[in-house]
Every structure is written in structure tokens, then in C-alpha cells.
Amino acid sequence: MTTWMITGCSSGLGRDLAHAVLQAGFNAVVTARDPQSVQDIVAAYPDTAVAAALDVTNRAEVDAAVMLAQARFGGVDVLVNNAGHGYRAAVEEADEHEVEALFASNFFGAVAVIKAVLPGMRARRTGTIVNVSSIAVWLGMPGSAYYSATKFALEGLSDALRKEVEPLGIKVMVVEPGAFRTDFAGRSLQQAKASIPDYAATAGPRRKENDRTHGTQPGDPVRAAAAIVKAVTGERLPSRLLLGRDAIKTVTAELGARLREIEDWKELSASTDFPDER
């Protein structure tokens, strides 16, 4: 039976994905920094679910969770890197230690889990890695520069990783959700303590005390979880899976704008080659 390992299951998409995976009849290693927060999920599926304490920035806990998956179910077949948090600040406002913590959680933590599961996947010549990103890689919203940077890094790594592991039977998919009605913009969202008045009109509206979007997002995380399961278990796996109509609209518009800009500047771009290479 296929075994999934999902990070960040205490709330939001991770929690709903754990439910969807278990309801579909798969095994699941359900992880959270506080495993008590997912005990209700595990209790409902005692034969196919196990809880694991996992702070993705703690290498010992990463290794222990993968070892638990091996001991209980024979290894990880599908890894979903979902753990992470948001961060709001103008670039100049951000605290460097908070930014380091953001990258540790959103990027380096995901890398650590990937590296921990890859030896088993390579040995079995099969596996799927799902990295949860965001349409923040397309939007570049003021106040979210550092969060976007973590997701840009994760997607860049995913694209190269895909080419490294495809010959070994391992697949990689990036998930790019739009705005979903989870706790991401609530309890899970952090921000810089400092605020600079000059950014009040750009980054300012997106500070937690000014943002009114929490609880009104169009995306349903239960449906998002079902979509991820459907993509992973289907005959073909997309390299990127958009989630939500807002994601489709945003990415389509941005791709069009980028293509138009390439066309507008192609002569200058091409002029940088050596003459005999044109």
C-alpha cells in the first residue's frame, strides 16, 4: 500500500490532505511540531496512520520521522512538503533573524526532508515528491518579498531535482495554491515588528492589522486536498499544479505579460551575443 508522509498537518491544507489520503485508503505519516494536534486523525485510522513529531528545522526529528515511516510502513512513497509559514514586511523593514527563520522553515526544512526520503526512493526506484509553493512566485506582492523568495527557491530546486531523479523513477510536482481559507493568513502569519511610514501605501495594507482577507479567501482546502490526491494518483503528474481560479487567472496574466516583454526587448537581448553567434 502507498505510504504518504505529509509535513505541517496541524491545520489547513496539511490537515485536510491527511484526511483525504487516509480516506482514500492509503497509509499516512501525519506530522506536526506538536503530535498531539493530529492525534484525532490518527485515532480515526489506527491501522493506516501514525503521528510523528516533526519540526522540519530539526534534523534529528526529520530523520526520526522517516525512520518511523520505514519501521511502520516500509518507507515513504509520497512526500508532501507542506510545512511553513507566511511573513509580511517591506524588504527594508524585515528583521534578519526572522528572515533566516522563514528560510529555515519554508526552504531548508523542505530540503532536509527531501534528502531524508530520497535514499529509500532511490533504492526502490519509485516515489513522488510534492512541494507546496504559492502563486506568490508570480505575484510579487509588496510586503511579501521574503515569503516569495522562499517559494522561488523551492521551485528552482524542484525543477532541477525533477531532472536529477526522473531517470531513477522518482517524480516531482510543485503545487501553487491561490488564496485558500486556511489559517495561513491568521495564526500562521508572522510579520516584522518595525514599520516604516514610507511603505504605508505599499506594504502597509498587507500588514496583519490591516488585512481583511482572512476568512474570505475563495479556495476550499478540502477540495484542494482532493485535487492533490487525484494528481498524484493519476496516470500523469504535472510539473506544476495550480489550485484555484484565482491562481489560473494570475498565472495566465503574468505569463502573457512576460511573453510580451520578451518580444518588446528581444532585439536588445539578442544584441549581446558575439557577432558570429547570432
Brief characterization of the structure:
The protein has 278 residues and is α/β, with parallel strands linked by helices. It contains eight helices and nine strands.
**Uncertain ranges:** none
The SSE order reads EHEHEHEEHEHHEEHEH
Q: Which strand order spans the largest sheet, edge to edge or round the barrel?
A: 3-2-1-4-6-7-9
Continuous helix count? 8
The proportion of strand residues reads: 15-25%
Q: How much helix, percentage-wise, in residues?
A: 40-55%
Structural class: alpha/beta
Rough outline? globular
Number of strands: 9
* Distance from first to last alpha carbon: 55 Å
Number of domains: 2
Mean pLDDT: 92
Rg over CA atoms, rounded to whole Å, is 20 Å
Please tell me the CATH architecture of the largest domain by its name: 3-Layer(aba) Sandwich
Question: Major sheet, described briefly?
Answer: 7 strands, parallel
CATH class of the largest domain: Alpha Beta
CATH superfamily of the largest domain: NAD(P)-binding Rossmann-like Domain
Task: Write a structural description.
By secondary structure, this protein is of the alpha/beta class. It contains eight helices and nine strands. The chain has helices at 12-23, 39-44, 59-73, 96-124, 136-139, 145-165, 221-233, 245-270; strands spanning 3-6, 27-32, 49-53, 78-81, 86-88, 127-132, 170-177, 189-191, 240-243. Strand 1 (3-6), helix 1 and strand 2 form a beta-alpha-beta unit. Helix 3 packs parallel to helix 4 (96-124). The protein is globular and about 60 Å long. The N and C termini lie far apart (55 Å). The model has no long low-confidence stretch (mean pLDDT 92).
